[in-house]
Amino acid sequence: MCSVMRLLGIPCRVVTNFESAHDVHMNLIVETYIDDNGVNEERTKDSIWNFHVWTEGWMKRPDLGIDGEYDGWQAVDPTPQELSDGVFCCGPASVKGILNGQTGFKYDAPFIFAEVNADCVYYMSTESGEMLKVDSDTKRVGKKISTKAVGSRRRQNITKSYKHKEGSKRERHCFFYAATRDYSKPDDEIDEDEEEEEEEEEVMDTEAESGETDGGGGSGGMEEEPTPQPPSPVTIRFKKVSRPINGKDVNLNLVLKSKSSDARPLSIHISVQAMNHNGRPTGKILAEDKEETLLPGKALSVPILVPFLTYHKPMVESESMKISVVITDKNNGDHKYLATHDVVLLNPQLSITAPAQASLNTLNSGEVVFMNPVNEVLTNCTLTLSGGGLFKEEFEKKIQDLNPNDTMSIKFDFTPYKKGEKTLTADFDCDTFRDIKAICTVNVV
């Protein structure tokens, strides 16, 4: 799509939105329903994809105003997720219109607004069948909206072109307007000092951030008689013990705190699910219950261990694992707290080497090396090599089974047929791991 638009003379770039919402009902809210163990229930088609990609084209929009206010970047999605007037298409939608909450604009503005700035609401089903709102998150959707920087391979963060600083009064005002089309909130309620944007991040983060939440507000609204004072909320934080590497046990701690002056006995249910890229669970990994006491003025650290032998089969075809924790205050049984944490496993190391510079139409050689990091035999192993201007077609080689700690060393030849900077890619697959990749650059002269 980007190439075709450029061919037609329209400036265009590719955009990636991380934590991208798929709001089926277009109410700007992603509703998630869970059971009392924190496991997702299939009650809605709303979901959050780990990322989604579209394009932006630079165009005039005289249909949106005569002063050119909404000219410029327009979001155009060639892989749309919903029908638009009966056809699978999406956009062009003014990015500035999305920023200002103009969900009444053509084309498909409500869907794109939700992709980058929907609110998330979590409901839990009780034994009586009642749906209890246990948490809401206004900041989860639309993370590090990115494009390739001009003239380099670096990532350019363009989140501020789609929405104001997350959690600021202006961002909440625009969300309110997008959802209600109500102008009644005056602009002078907005503190302009909140609009100072953070510095653009030019390098992609390599590690997930630990999040902290108060686990929702509990369910005090269920009580028939008012209580003198609701219990102090429990704040929940996930803390990594080690980097989550595919092939090794996943270790992290659940850290709980409360300002309560009393000891609080807690019932903690932990569930772990394998998740697809589109936010749908693909399999159950484990579930366990723990009984702990949160003492006043002290943090409670609860270890969570997900062994490799437990997760590796469900995770072969999955993109991430979701750890869900439901905490029940045993002294106030109606008060439940929910927290979730997504774990993306880092792949074992695969290395590829080739000459940094090679001559056109000259035979060159390279090598791929991989060591089996797990205590089991890797079967059905395949290595795929590719590279535009280096290989005219993909080169695929079947590899014999790899015993634990065995090292695979594969030498290969290639003859460059196009000049310029080319990327050589190696992709290793087996029954235990999928798509372990490595790249190197070859400058063909």
TrEMBL record:
GO molecular function: protein-glutamine gamma-glutamyltransferase activity
One Pfam entry name: Transglut_C
Every Transglutaminase-like domain range: 1-80
Biased composition (Acidic residues): 188-212
InterPro entries from the UniProt entry: Ig-like_fold, Papain-like_cys_pep_sf, Transglutaminase, Transglutaminase-like, Transglutaminase-like_sf, Transglutaminase_C, Transglutaminase_C_sf
Parts forming coiled coils: none
Family: Belongs to the transglutaminase superfamily. Transglutaminase family.
Protein name: Transglutaminase-like domain-containing protein
Organism: Amphiprion ocellaris (Clown anemonefish)
